[in-house]
Amino acid sequence: MPSKDFDPPQKLPTADRAQWDLSIPATDWYDSLAAAGLRNPDVHGPARHWLQVEGSFTRALQSRCTNSFHVEVQHEGFAVPTLEEARHLNIPIRQRAWIREVRLCGDGTPWVLARTVIPLSCLEGRGRRLRHLGNRPLGAYLFSSPDWQRGPLETGLCQRTVQGQPEIARRSVFHHDDRKLLVGEYLLPVLYR
Ligand SMILES: C=C(O[C@@H]1C=C(C(=O)O)C=C[C@H]1O)C(=O)O
User: Fold this and answer.
1) For the domain that residue 74 is a member of, what is the CATH number?
2) pLDDT at position 5, please?
3) What is the DSSP letter of 24?
4) Going by CA atoms, what residue is nearest to atom 11 of ligand 1?
5) Are the C-beta atoms of 52 and 168 separated by less than 8 Å?
6) pLDDT of the chain along its 193 residues, tens only?
7) In the Cβ-directed half-sphere of 114, how many Cα atoms lie within 13 Å?
8) Is 2 part of a structural domain of the chain?
9) What's the domain range around 134?
10) Ligand 1 center to 127 CA (angstroms)
């Protein structure tokens, strides 16, 4: 799924390459949890709680931590979204966007992988801050402003290729006037099993 800019370097030592395997697989998206459940009933199991969190996902994860929560940036920069993402956001195909991939970690362990596609129109004015989030959670920005509203949640079923990758995901578009950005959150099994 990540565009070419995000391919792992070929010469990483084996231990580091294993880290890369904690990556986001191609995912099929469904309009509702019920629709995804027809393909994979696991979405109605313990993962369901996380698929339905309505407010800030960061906050929900923080409240599950015993000690600490942190965001680890994996890649951040201008890159070309997938065709499906560009269509979903209604932006020109092959137009670069700011793409941010992070791990949301609870008590030192990655719990969720997140991929956010931020089109150029969102990066103007106050939106310039979106390029400088670093390890601060995106949710703090989005939920601190009443201007940003979340659209409906979709449920994703991941085409897992490697042990440990996420199987289940959620995604939504946040919009502010005619600006839209796309946030995907991929649940790692350790979060709900
Ligand atoms: C959208 C939110 O932001 C969270 C933080 C992210 C980040 O820092 O890149 C990405 C996805 C999130 O789950 C949220 O807290 O709801």
Assistant:
1) 3.40.1410.10
2) 43
3) P
4) 114
5) no
6) 433 344 444 454 555 544 447 889 999 999 999 999 999 999 999 999 999 999 999 999 999 999 999 999 999 999 999 999 999 999 999 999 999 999 999 999 999 999 999 999 999 999 999 999 999 999 999 999 889 999 999 999 999 988 889 999 999 999 999 999 999 999 999 999 8
7) 26
8) no
9) 25-192
10) 15
Q: Is residue 52 part of a domain?
A: yes
Question: Which CA distances in Å does 113 have to 58, 60, 82, 94, 176?
Answer: 12, 15, 17, 24, 24
Residues 6 or more apart whose Cβ sits within 8 Å of residue 117: 81, 85, 89, 97, 98, 99, 181, 182
What is the spatial distance between Cα 174 and Cα 63, in angstroms, rounded to a whole number?
23
Annotated binding site: 100, 138, 185
Examine residue 5 and state whether it is found in any structural domain, yes or no: no
Q: How far apart are CA 193 and CA 173, in angstroms?
A: 27
Distance 13 CA to ligand 1 centre (A): 30
Give the number of domains in the chain: 1
Residue 171 domain flag: yes
What DSSP string runs through 128-164?
Answer: GGGGG-TTS-HHHHHTT-TT-EE-PPEEEEE---STT
Q: From the CA of 182, how far away is ligand 1's center (Å)?
A: 11
Pocket test for ligand 1, best of 72, 105, 116, 153 (most atoms within 8 A of CB): 116
Q: What angle do CA 42, 191, 77 make, to 5 degrees?
A: 105
Residue written as token pair 């996902």: 57
